[in-house]
Write a structure and sequence with these properties.
alpha/beta; seven-stranded mixed sheet; 5 helices; Rossmann fold; single chain; 192 residues
Length: 192
């Protein structure tokens, strides 16, 4: 008998990760499970080993963040891990101060605004996100490197760089990582 881990990819949109249960509220993106990532009604407490939420938390109202993080905490097994990526406001502000060009920052700050779920209502730097996670009960909060995850091959915003987003698939074609620019995704993981 194998002890298979249960891993959730929350707010997956069109980026499906093999070996994860891909969850989204939008049926049209064809997730494995249609569910509200804020409530996760289709998942029981203490049933999940890993939650991965890439650039979705900022789409929630600030007032709802504590309740959502608490729900994610409840769904995780003891010792389970949460991995969150959000726009890194410190990195974005540093980029603006250096280049004085706000245009490439707009979708990171406000969302792309292409559909009803694509607006940003919250933002973090590392210390603010660490405080939110610890307040919800998480421990061992630290940054993670997207290249050292089991989903490193997925072209998502955890790999966002400015002035250019260098995605892994293009990097492979070019014969290496070839990352250019400033990393503007705040990638943080913690343990229940």
């Amino acid at each position: 008998m194998t002890n298979k881990e249960t891993k959730l990819h929350l707010g997956c949109f069109s980026k499906k990760i093999h070996g994860f249960i891909n969850v989204d509220i939008r049926e049209d993106v064809k997730p494995d499970v249609v569910d509200d990532i804020c409530t996760l009604t289709k998942f029981e407490n203490e049933s999940v080993d890993l939650i991965y939420a890439c650039h979705v938390l900022e789409h929630l109202y600030r007032r709802d963040i504590p309740k959502v993080l608490s729900r994610w905490y409840d769904v995780l097994k003891s010792g389970g891990k949460i991995r969150i990526a959000v726009p890194d406001l410190q990195a974005l502000f540093e980029y603006y101060i250096c280049f004085k060009d706000i245009k490439p920052l707009l979708h990171n700050i406000y969302g792309s605004q292409k559909h009803d779920y694509d607006y940003h209502y919250s933002g973090w730097d590392f210390n603010f996100l660490k405080t939110d996670l610890m307040t919800s009960g998480f421990k061992n909060v630290q940054r993670y490197d997207w290249r050292e995850t089991d989903h490193f091959y997925i072209d998502d915003y955890s790999q966002a760089y400015l002035p250019e987003i260098s995605y892994r698939t293009r990097q492979i074609r070019e014969g290496g990582f070839g990352i250019k620019g400033k990393h503007v995704s705040l990638n943080v993981e913690a343990v229940k």
